[in-house]
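Run log, item B.
One chain of 526 residues. Sequence copied directly from the ordering sheet:
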Amino acid sequence: MYAQVVVLTYQSPDIDSYTYEIPKELKVEVGQLVEVPFGKRNPTGIVLSISPEIRNSKFEIRNLKKISKIIFNQPLLLPYQIELLKWMSEYYMAPMVNCFEAAMPPLNAKSLKLNAKLVSSVQLSAFSVQQTLVLVPTINQIPETLAKFPRAKNYVVYHNELKLSEKFAAWQKIQSGKADYIFGSRSAIFSPCPNLKEIIIYDEHDGAYKDERSPYFDTLTVAQKISALTKAQIKIVDASPKITTYFQLKSYIKMQMFGVNTKIISMRDEKLRGNFSPISSHLQEELRKKQHILLFLNKKKESGSMFCKNCKFNDYFEKHPEHCPKCKSQDIYFNVLNVDSLRAEVKKITKRLAFPPEARLPLRSEASAKGGSVQRSEIDIQTATVFYSPKINKYDTAVYIQPDSLLNRADLESVETLYSHITNLKKILPENGTLIIQTYNPDDETLKYSASGNYDSYFKSQLENRRLLSYPPFALLVKLTIKGKDKEKIGEIARKTFSNLNSTIQPASPATCVDAGAKRGERFNN
């Protein structure tokens, strides 16, 4: 008998697995962790398949090496996981070993010795409970999500921040079928669930669900494949889903509405009235009130908004322009904001307006909070990290300072980020709380739809724009990265690659893409 083994060590990226002979005294199973000879090393590997004949005829039997030993009798991967990882390797064009290492807990020699008893004792339960997998973007969101599932009596928390022994213990309990709920972040999608009933994904739009290391997988795409393999149902809880997700899986998305009062302030009008501060006159009045206010600012430090005092033109720029691009006047005002400069501006304004002492409580900014605990203040100045804090405060008022950096960015996902920012700000406000949006583009339709929570209108407008530009979901975007030390050689390879792709790939019509996307969503009804 012969086994195809994915060797869990550095190797040639163009080889998925290696053939080994199975010694007669070993009872090898698919999914088992084994030790194999590999050059001068003896790494571990996962048995991918077993057959009575050699799959690759170029190897002679006498040249084959034998599996040294079985590390654990109980397979660490379930059959559907083996199929999933094979598919991932092909779909993402990634080395098989990278797919296996992304899915499994670290399996180095030292950790194996320390956790041998823990993992070898895995026993699958004949009466395993139905299992629900609940995913959140970050581990800080797990506690609040747990509270939403009072039925979870025998749950497991699984994520990459656990200690190695804790990960093995969680993996063991999940695979035994004794855990009814599994709560975790992106890596939990690979949990070995023998009786998976449902996959629930919270805030699927979040970029944390995309792995930026090989195999560069997208969590929802992997979840869809798992659903096809196990018949588990997918449910998405997201108040600001991605356009492509809503297009394909609208009926599987649960959207949340917020009873928040929203006001859009034109910073263009503020400048015309002579107010060149990033704090609008309306916000200055809000600061007078004794309430808990969040000032939200999320952009690069060197970027800013330019206003021409000559022709009244304004726009957003990544760097400080030398003159107005419209009238060439150098009489311009360029506003560069970051957390610290905004904090200084708020202090200056509160002092200038002679606020009562009780209103001038200590300001809290992200920079000042890094050193440790700080006194709760009336005014918090934060970036997007506020959405991922372990316990999000409820504010009376939230203010989005300059969302224009996203509106003016030439990025497919920038408007989706804007919509999610506004939605997340609503989440941290109480019923009838106030959201103020300060912008140089008050008439932008995306901003208006985001402010009112009119997702359907926002979706329809974005879908039409994407149709005209052949963007997803009417096309599939693929990123190719070519690396090397020789810049000229890499440039030449890139040009040839572009030329070859441009001459061989026939673009699909929008109708074909729509049909394919619809079928992708419909398959969950079967």
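Observations after the first pass:
- Confidence is low (pLDDT under 50) at residues 118-122, 357-362, 367-377, 522-526.
- The domain at 124-237 is CATH 3.40.50.300 (Rossmann fold).
Flagged for discussion on Thursday.
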